[in-house]
Amino acid sequence: MKKWAKITLIGFSSLVLVALGSYSYLMWDTPYEKLSTKGLAFATSERIPLVSTPFVQDTTNQKNIVTDGIWFADHTGRKMVLRGLNLGGGTKLPKTPNLPSHVEEGFFNATDISFVGRPFPLEEADEHLRRIKHWGFNLIRFLVTWEAIEHKGPGIYDQEYLSYVRQVILKAGDYGLNVFIDPHQDVWSRFSGGSGAPKWTFDKVGLNVTKFKESGAAVVHNTHGDPYPRMIWPTNYGKLATATMFTLFFGGNDFAPNVTIDSIPVQEYLQSHFINAMKQVALQVKDLPNVVGFETMNEPSMGYIGQHLEDWSFVKNGDSPNFYEGMVAGAGHTMDVEYWAINTTGFEQGPNVKINPKGISVWNEGHEPIWKRHGVWGFDDQGSPMLLQPDYFKVSDPNGTYFKPFVDRYSDTIRAVDDRLLIFVEPPLTTEMPSWKGEKTGHFVNATHWYDVVALFTKKYVPFFTVDEEDLSLVIGRKNVRQYFEGRMAKIKSETEHTMGARPTIIGEFGIPMDLNNGEAYATSDFTEQEKVLDRSFNAIENELLHYALWTYVEDNTNERGDQWNGEDLSIFSESQQSDTSDINSGGRALNAMLRPYPHKTAGIPLFHQFNMEAGEYIYKYRADTSSKLPTELYLPDWHYGQGFTIHHSGGTLAYDKGNQLLLHYADTVGENIVIIKKL
Asked: Does residue 509 have an active-site annotation?
């Protein structure tokens, strides 16, 4: 019997089965060749004057990017579409010693490590940043982890790493690349199967990371070994180690009032250390105009908060204890639990399995299990574990009560260092954004994540179906799938208006597995399937004129080990594909879809844009502001247009900055302008 598990979110890092909302539907059924060009001016690349537009830094103490209602803008007021890139997936892992997730030796050495050299060694920065700039990106979501900053112990900051971060970001500014800082985590920590928090956070609450495997508290690649089951790591969000830490972090005052660390309530202790660690980064970069903001936290979870303890979290995959069963198993009791596996159509339930057969307790000696201590579970008259308070963690508004105060505190701390910084907010997994409407949100950005989950989990291109999260039914048909994806983008955009008011929306992560079909492209060098999947995601995002940050760029990605983390392989660059180091595009993956035109800066208001990958045709509409003497800049990648192009446009003048791959349009008519470009 096959079933779909009830799943709500996971970002790239996580799975999101998305709900269908209202959607915009523009021009998809009108092929470019049938668009009327009557009355439009005509030009070819040979007839357009060549110019150079060097990057000029603003000197008015502004950031390179500011906000203007729902738009981002440069210091001249031109509206920007942010084409961002996550840099990078390898930052989750120490550089010295090199500890990818499949390596067990040295894994538990949590202090004699360094993240200097992540995302790449400083001496290699020019090579990678030049490529990122050439590929048209104008924004970097720059990953840092709490562990990288404060791994040696509470309050001990790695100054060498902080200095390294500043140097890389300074160099990014030399290439005109802007940055927002992402305090990255996945399932709390490397030691619970992801990335983020230092090991000492577990030590301080009595959890023994060396016993996570035996007790079922987490499934960690480093200790599980190969093969590591596909997309098993997100299940850790519902397991004891991760769920406990997030509950203590966001709601320890209410749910674990008996837990203190050095006489400080556990919630205060954990939050203050996390926020102060990120403050150290802010202090390093506060004078840099290309650092435009800080994210709150990557893909946070509310842990047990809001959950009924006989339910499951996210997705059932592998050994699948419910919340209560995970608590009891971690305390040293063998539990009989459900088992699920991924196949090409969903999740299939198999026979139950036993976890923690040896009865290993994950709690250090002298530490009574936290949730037993608080009366959540106990023992019956026969000495068997029993659930005493299944609704202990139920609250009516978890995000408003626990997540929102954290965001406000974090924002206040970071902006006290530099009040020009934007705050990029992503809601906790499986939840909606809390509302700040009516409050001061002029510095907020909605940074929700989204993925094509069928591709993410099955590693297949399935053009004709996806899954509707509302009723778990299949969405059948190419057109319906496309409209469903567009609907999700429109819904995210409308949620911004509903919760923050007129603020920008950026898809903080999206991307696709490059190892589709068991990595057959690595043998054939044919990334056509990947390009189709990626293009479909791009089209949905572009249909709503949303900003985005593509996941990911990993400088040491290989065909064999992917992004070096939990079996994932989403990097748009791989050293295994780099056959010619003198070719800036060598090493790139799925370039036909990834390299695409977009409106870099608009003297006016963007209205619509669309790229037909197969035909190499691009259309852009905008409402021109002729009071600006500056042009609208369209990025035209040489990959598609380097051999020449033709243009139809609604008047005005054109110029071409081939060095920066920019087409410049100087409108002479107020109101709607159109530019249609086709490669030769």
From this structure: yes
